[in-house]
Amino acid sequence: MSPAAALELRSLCKRFGPKEVVTDLSFRVEPGEVFGFLGPNGAGKTTTMRMVLGLIRPSAGKLLVLGEEMPAGGRRVLPQVGPLVETPALYPNLSGRDNLAVFGAELGGVPWSRVDELLALVGLGDRGRDRVARYSLGMRQRLGLAVALLHRPRLLLLDEPANGLDPAGIREIRSLLRNLSSAGTTVFISSHVLGEVERVCDRVAILRRGRLAYLGDLSSLRASTGTFLVRIERADEALQWLRAQPWGGSAQAGPDGTVEVLSPTGRGRDLNRALMGAGFFADSLVPCERDLEEAFLQLTEEER
């Protein structure tokens, strides 16, 4: 029997009055996975995360967190979830260290050694005694992450964790999240920073207007859609022949005597077979990857 998912959505829906903002959403997040949750503003990401945290009830479908159905099981599982959703609600007149102590007291108390360990972990070891009012946005984000980690959660729920961080800070947080995942913590990240999501996440779900538009890894999203860069002798003649084919009308000249063309079936071997049948012999066929941002925008663009 497979272990319970860290997070599972089954045909999840949420309506506010007549407007449905999440529609028939289904996916699983496995234990120890780093999972990205992407989509433009208004796609339903925040609403879904609020349902995961038991802050609002689904209108239909099922939502399971650590094997317990929400919101009924919230009292049992939410103490095992570490959220960082939207701007961290911190006490500006207290130090970072005292903020962690206050939040720790709400969890039944944590030793100062744990507080200092977390400050070092998120890169605030030398600023822990400074008042939070003097912290930059990135420092507040780091402290919010430390708050989420106080009780060693099994599931970490993060909304834009790189918000306000400089490139070095982003790299440190990326390393931290991968280390947490390796130790068994499941990390669920909502973010607009595609490059960072690609570097840290095992899989992603992409929403479009409340519906699932893509589920898988980002490398597959970038993969060729059946277009190849062909290095071939007599490239000009081959280009003319390709453009005369029903499937090759979009063929164009590439760099250094190559041709960029769509395969008749999406597979390289069938393109090669067609070229050979016409007397053209390719030296190489290389799949053309899509730009990640372009692929994301194509998936999520609004209907005209």
Give the count of helical stretches: 11
Q: Largest beta sheet, briefly?
A: 6 strands, mixed
Secondary structural class:
alpha/beta
H/E series, N to C?
EEEHEEHEHHHEHEHEEHEHEEHEH
State the fourth-level CATH superfamily of the largest domain.
P-loop containing nucleotide triphosphate hydrolases
Low-confidence stretches: none
Strand portion: 25-35%
Q: Strand order across the biggest sheet?
A: 6-7-8-3-9-10
What is the share of helical residues?
Answer: 25-40%
Q: What count of structural domains?
A: 2
Describe this structure in words.
The two termini are 46 Å apart. A hairpin with a 4-residue loop joins strand 12 and strand 13. Helices cover 34% and strands 26% of the residues. It folds into two domains: 215 residues, Rossmann fold (3-Layer(aba) Sandwich); 65 residues, Alpha-Beta Plaits (2-Layer Sandwich). The strands form three sheets. The protein has a six-stranded mixed beta sheet with strand order 6-7-8-3-9-10, with helices on both faces. The chain has a four-stranded antiparallel beta sheet with strand order 2-1-4-5. A four-stranded antiparallel beta sheet has the order 12-13-11-14, covered by helices on one side. The protein has 304 residues and is of the alpha/beta class.
Summarize this structure as a short list of keywords or feature phrases.
304 residues; alpha/beta; Rossmann fold; Alpha-Beta Plaits; 2 domains; 11 helices; 26% strand
Topology:
Elements: E1 7-16, E2 19-29, E3 34-38, H1 45-52, E4 60-65, E5 68-69, H2 74-77, E6 81-84, H3 96-106, H4 112-121, H5 137-149, E7 155-159, H6 167-182, E8 186-190, H7 194-200, E9 203-208, E10 211-216, H8 218-222, E11 227-232, H9 235-243, E12 252-253, E13 258-262, H10 268-277, E14 282-287, H11 292-300
Parallel strand pairs: 3-8, 3-9, 6-7, 7-8
Antiparallel strand pairs: 1-2, 1-4, 4-5, 9-10, 11-13, 11-14, 12-13
